[in-house]
């Protein structure tokens, strides 16, 4: 861990972030970070416990003179998205994140940084440890598995929390104050097929789509970024229709909430078409690169002839339906909000495709700030894949967070922000899946708000956190705590 991170201002924030990032904390494997956080609270002499699902709650009494203010919940999630570049050697299960300073940014070497939501968690830790920052009674809520299922928020029972105001520290633009977010649902299509022997006279190719930016499948879905799975399918569709290409295997993308950056396929074609196939594919690649030259300037598609031809392939009839279902399945923005300017209402990310050895799986994450629209798009995807014979499961549904323009805590934050920076913040709803809507189902009277420092490239190895923005965020947070409304 570079000492230069610990020397950044405010040191109380960056040191806690460095401590946290030394602990492996992948989604669904949060055992170590849970124990780390419990030890942290207990070592401060604060009431510390975990609930039935293993969320960690730490309570700190109000500082002198703040006892008559409303109690607050400060909330962040412990897990982080694990993504790395293909040429980066790194074990997320055992290693801490390797960070460095790049101008105004803190980055990680070839991996995700964990600023989502590590900086928010670090800020809460710094407040809990502080002895000179005025604040009301605090319940620090550290949820688990936010990134791959919202498990912690979904399973937090009513009656555990006593706070009246919730500060969620999980947004990624420091000029935004969020008062609403999208809900989501997982769409998973699976099928089995009988492989067939590779025909005589075939040659094998490995096709690799790489160099895409990737990113957050909610916050970045409107940017027109390339989806490696859709690009790969475009190549496979053309190769199948024009040259009888058959697929042996595909591995594309990784996590549902990350726009896929890479896809690798092994295919075969008749040797007689070899030269024409390579020429035709290159023309299509050139077309795709031209289409994406602004948003994806580093896109690469590599064709490598295999030394040994794959022994088994997907039958032509099954492949006919597969590549067409993939073409029909919507990816990207589906609808924009009619109520909020420039807000994505509904979208889908075709996140992961795995095909081979007689099995197929396509994993999507569908988001919407309108519950009925979420299921409408999910059913559209379901229909496309059921028509090819897939079993389709809709799971992990979680609600959005309905904006409350009359929020009391919003009336506190807006003038404080304007006083601090000389300009008004943007009060928005976002297309990411914040936990506020879920928490609100069991705590409907709790007044909620979300804000945070500027983080770009979340859910990708390009993730980076602004140093100057983190300073601004910390100052803003301290001012908010001093101005929580009276009981």
TrEMBL record:
GO terms for cellular component: cytosol. It is an enzyme of class 3 (hydrolase). This is Cytosol non-specific dipeptidase. Its cofactor is Co(2+); Zn(2+). Its EC number is 3.4.13.18. GO terms for biological process: proteolysis. It comes from Flavobacterium frigoris (strain PS1). GO terms for molecular function: metal ion binding; metallodipeptidase activity. The keyword Hydrolase applies. Belongs to the peptidase M20C family. It holds the Pfam family M20_dimer. Gene3D superfamilies: Zn peptidases (3.40.630.10). It catalyses: Hydrolysis of dipeptides, preferentially hydrophobic dipeptides including prolyl amino acids. Residues 208-293 form the Peptidase M20 dimerisation domain. Keywords: Cobalt, Hydrolase, Metal-binding, Metalloprotease, Protease, Zinc. Transmembrane segments: none annotated.
């Amino acid at each position: 861990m570079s000492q230069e991170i610990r020397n950044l201002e405010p040191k109380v924030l960056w040191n806690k972030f460095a401590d946290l990032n030394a602990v492996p904390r992948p989604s669904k494997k949060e055992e170590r970070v849970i124990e780390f956080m419990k030890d942290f609270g207990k070592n401060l002499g604060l009431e510390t416990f975990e609930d039935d699902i293993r969320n960690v709650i730490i309570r700190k009494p109000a500082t002198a003179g703040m006892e008559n203010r409303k109690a607050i919940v400060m909330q962040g999630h412990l897990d982080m998205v694990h993504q790395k570049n293909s040429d980066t050697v790194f074990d997320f299960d055992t290693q801490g994140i390797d960070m460095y300073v790049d101008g105004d940014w803190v980055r990680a070497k070839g991996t995700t940084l964990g600023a989502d939501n590590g900086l928010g968690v670090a800020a809460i830790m710094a407040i809990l440890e502080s002895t000179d920052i005025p604040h009301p009674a605090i319940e620090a809520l550290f949820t688990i598995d936010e990134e791959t299922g919202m498990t912690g928020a979904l399973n937090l029972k009513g009656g555990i929390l006593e706070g009246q105001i919730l500060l969620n520290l999980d947004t990624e633009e420091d000029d935004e104050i969020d008062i609403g977010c999208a809900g989501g649902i997982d769409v998973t299509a699976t099928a089995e097929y009988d492989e067939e022997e590779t025909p005589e006279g075939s040659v094998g190719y490995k096709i690799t789509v790489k160099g895409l930016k990737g990113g957050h499948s909610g916050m970045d879905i409107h940017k027109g970024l390339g989806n490696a799975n859709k690009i790969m399918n475009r190549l496979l569709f053309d190769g199948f229709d024009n040259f009888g290409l058959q697929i042996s295997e595909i591995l594309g993308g990784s996590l549902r909430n990350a726009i896929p950056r890479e896809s690798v396929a092994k295919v075969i074609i008749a040797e007689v078409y070899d030269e024409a196939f390579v020429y035709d594919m290159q023309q299509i690649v050139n077309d795709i690169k031209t289409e994406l030259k602004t948003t994806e300037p580093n896109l690469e598609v590599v064709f490598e002839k295999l030394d040994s031809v794959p022994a088994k392939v997907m039958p032509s009839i099954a492949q006919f339906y597969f590549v067409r279902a993939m073409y029909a399945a919507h990816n990207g923005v589906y609808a924009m909000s009619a109520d909020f300017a420039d807000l994505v209402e509904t979208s889908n990310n075709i996140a992961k495709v795995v095909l081979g050895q007689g099995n197929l799986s396509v994993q999507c994450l569908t988001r919407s700030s309108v519950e009925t629209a979420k299921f409408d798009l999910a059913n559209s995807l379901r229909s496309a894949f059921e028509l090819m014979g897939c079993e389709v499961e809709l799971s992990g549904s979680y609600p959005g967070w309905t904006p409350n323009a009359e929020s009391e805590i919003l009336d506190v934050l807006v003038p404080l922000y304007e006083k601090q920076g000389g300009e008004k913040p943007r009060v928005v709803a976002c297309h990411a899946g914040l936990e506020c809507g879920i928490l609100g189902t069991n705590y409907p009277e709790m007044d909620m708000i979300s804000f945070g420092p500027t983080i770009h490239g979340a859910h990708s190895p390009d993730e980076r956190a602004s140093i100057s923005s983190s300073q601004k965020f910390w100052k803003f947070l301290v001012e908010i705590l001093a101005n929580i409304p009276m009981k």
